[in-house]
Amino acid sequence: MFFSEQNLNLQQSQFIEIIIDYIVKKGTLERQVLQQDPFSSVGGIMVVFKDQLPKARGILDILERINRNAEEIS
């Protein structure tokens, strides 16, 4: 939903795709991991969204919801 509603540049789209792949494989994603590989390969969240902090906050909010849902299921 976030992905389709936003105007993202190529670097941002790649970053979101890495997030999706990571969550599909691991089930959750902690915020601090966004500054590590594989995310740092495209710059990390604060670099990729440096001029669009509301988008970065939106991504972090979505990740928090995913993590909460995963905790409730387990």
The helix-and-strand class reads mainly alpha
Percent in strands: under 5%
Task: List how many beta strands DSSP finds.
Answer: 0
Main sheet characteristics: none
Q: Supply the number of helical segments.
A: 4
Distance between the termini: 24 Å
Which residues form runs of ≥5 with pLDDT under 50? none
Shape: globular
Portion of residues in helices? 55-70%
| Pattern of helices and strands | HHHH
Rg calculated over all Cα atoms: 12 Å
The residue-averaged pLDDT reads 88
Model description:
With 74 residues, the protein is an all-alpha fold. Helix content is 62%, strand content 0%. The radius of gyration is 12 Å and the shape is globular. It starts with a helix and ends with a helix. The mean pLDDT is 88.
List keywords for this structure.
74 residues, mainly alpha, 0% strand
Question: What would you say about this model in short?
Answer:
The protein has 74 residues and is mainly α.
